[in-house]
Here is the input.
Amino acid sequence: MAVRPPQQDGDEPDTLEFGIAALSPHLSKSDLTFPATTDEVVRELGDPAIPYDANGNTVRLSEALGAVRATQFDTQRELLDALHPVLEEYRESGGGILSQLRALLPF
Here is the structure.
């Protein structure tokens, strides 16, 4: 998913990508080949923090993959399809109680 950010200065991007759209650039830059296991995906992509909402909240790829039932993906589409509901759940829940507590702290 993507959403237009608030207009401020000209240095900001036109859209903010989150969810599987934010993971796609990592996949494009990698040498990951399929089929691939969850460990191979994390190792090859470097366990990036994936934004799951327009506020910039993130979840590590390894954590998101931990919530997926599959341990191997035959195609990139299969990987993205498996991650989509997990990232949507993070978006809808606001990332859980830990994320909400972090948002309240001033540092």
Remarks:
- The two ends are 28 Å apart (CA to CA).
- Residues 76-93 form the longest helix (18 residues).
- The first strand starts at residue 2 and ends at 3.
